[in-house]
Amino acid sequence: MTNKVRHVIGISGGKDSAALALYLHQNYPQVDMEYYFCDTGKELKETYDLIEKLDHELGGNKIQKLEAAHSSHKDPFDHFLSMYRGYLPSSNARWCTKKLKLEPFEKFVGDGPVISYVGIRDDEDREGYISRKSNIQSIFPFRRNIWSEDVINLVLKNSNIELIATHYSQNLDKEKLDRILDVVNTPLSEKLVQREKLKSLHNLGIKDFNKVVFNFLKKSDYPIALIDNFSLLEKENGLIRKDIFEILENSTVGVPKYYKEVEFEHNGKRGVYARSRSGCFFCFFQQRIEWVWLYEQHPALFQKAMDYEKEGYNWVEGETLEQLILPERLNKIKEDHLKKLEKRSTNNSPYLVDILEDAETEGCAACFI
Question: Residue 357: its pLDDT value, please?
C-alpha cells in the first residue's frame, strides 16, 4: 500500500526548504523522498549554488529540475511574460507563481496520491500559497501541528466529536482519557475557538493527537489513508528559525549566501544589508532596502530588472526602479534601514533577516520556503 503514495519536497533555494530536505533525510531515511526545483531562469547564482550543494548532500542527482516552458530563445519567465504581453507579475496578479511554480509541480506529481512536505516553521502563522488539488496532501514537519488547516477543520468539526472521542478511547488509560475527553467533548463556540481546542489537545499529547488524526483519515480520500505507517506521527517538537540555521550550518550546504550581511556606509554611519528570501532576483515582494542591495551588489541584475519595467508596469508599488535609485530616494531608504538596525540590540538573533520587517509574512510557500 505504501508505495502507491509519492513523497515530495519542493526545493525553492531558500533556507527552510533546504533545511527540511536535510532534516527529513537525516531523521526519516526510510521515506522514499522525491525532490524537485521549479526553475524560473531568474534565480540568483547563490540560489543555484545552494541547490547544487544540497543535491550533493542528499546523494547526488536527487533534485529534479522542472521548467514550465522550454524554448531555445527564452527562459520560462520570459516565455510567459511574452504570453502576458509584458504584464509584470505583482502581489495582486501572481501569474509567476501559478505558471512557473504550481503548474509545473502539479504536472510533475500528476493525478496519483502525493504527500507534499512543506517547510513552514513553528514560529510562522501561515500555510502559504499551496496547491489545493485533492490528490495532494500537505504535511508540515517543522510545526508541532503537522496537519494542514483543512484536515484540522475536518477533525475538530463539532459533528465529528463522537468519532474523535472513539478514536481516543482505543489506546489511552482512563486518567489521561478523561482529561482529553473533557476537551474533545466541548464543542467549538465563541468561548472555545478551534485554535484553542487544538492547543489544549496538543498539550495533552501531540503523539496521541497525531495518531487519532491518522486513524480518522483512514476512511477519507486523503493520500495518507493509503499509508500503513507514518513516521512523523511520533514527532512532538516544533522547529523555529534558529533551528533551521543550525541544520544548515551543521551540514556542508551552509546558509544561502544571499543572507550574508554586507556592510555599507551612509552619512558617516555603518550599516549592513542582505536579502531576506529566495526567489527571482526581481521579486516584487522584496523590500526597498533589498532592491538597494541588488543595485549595489548585483548591478547587472538590477539593470535587467529595470529593463523589464515600462509605463504602468513596475516591480515596486508607487515607484519605478529608476526612481528608487535616485540619490535622494536611495539615501532615504538607507536612513530608514539604519534606524531599524539601531533597534537590533533588542533582538537576540544574529541574523539580519530577523529585523527585516515583514520579511516572511508576505509571499508564498511555493517560492520562498
Answer: 47
* Cβ atoms within 10 Å, residue 341: 16
Residue 1: pLDDT above 50? no
Residue type, 70: H
Tell me how far apart the alpha carbons of residues 146 and 118 are, in angstroms, rounded to a whole number. Answer: 10
Stronger pLDDT, 277 or 48, i.e. the higher one: 48
- Looking at residues 127-154, what average pLDDT do you find? 90
Which cell is 278 given? 529566495
What would the mean pLDDT of 329-353 be, rounded to a whole number? 80
Integer Cα distance of 102 and 366 in angstroms: 7
Average pLDDT over the chain, rounded to whole? 91
The neighbouring-strand residues paired with 60 are none
Could you give the angle at which helices 45-57 and 15-27 cross, rounded to 10 degrees? 0
For residue 265, report the phi and psi dihedrals to the nearest 5 degrees: -120, 135
Q: State residue 69's pLDDT score.
A: 83
Phi and psi angles of residue 115, each rounded to the nearest 5 degrees, phi first: -110, 120
The whole-model pTM stands at 0.90
CA proximity to 363, closest of 124, 132, 138 = 124
- Kindly tell me if the per-residue pLDDT of 96 is higher than 90: yes
Over 90: is that where the pLDDT of 362 sits?
no
Q: How far apart are CA 340 and CA 329, in angstroms?
A: 17
Percent of the chain with pLDDT over 70: 91
HEC string of the chain? Answer: CHHHCEEEEECCCCHHHHHHHHHHHHHCCCCCEEEEEECCCCECHHHHHHHHHHHHHCCCCCEEEECCCCCCCCCHHHHHHHHCCCCCCECCECHHHHHHHHHHHHHHHCCCCEEEECCCCCCCCCCCCCCCCCCEEEECCCCCCCECHHHHHHHCCHHHHHHHHHHHHCCCCHHHHHHHHHHHCCCCCCCCCHHHHHHHHHHCCHHHHHHHHHHHHHHCCCHHHHCCCCHHHHCCCCCCHHHHHHHHHCCCCCCCHHHCCEEEEECCEEEEECCCCCCECCCCCCCHHHHHHHHHHCHHHHHHHHHHCECCECCECCECHHHHCCHHHHHHHHHHHHHHHHHHHHCCCCCHHHHCCCCCCCCCHHHHC
For residue 141, what is its C-alpha cell?
514537519
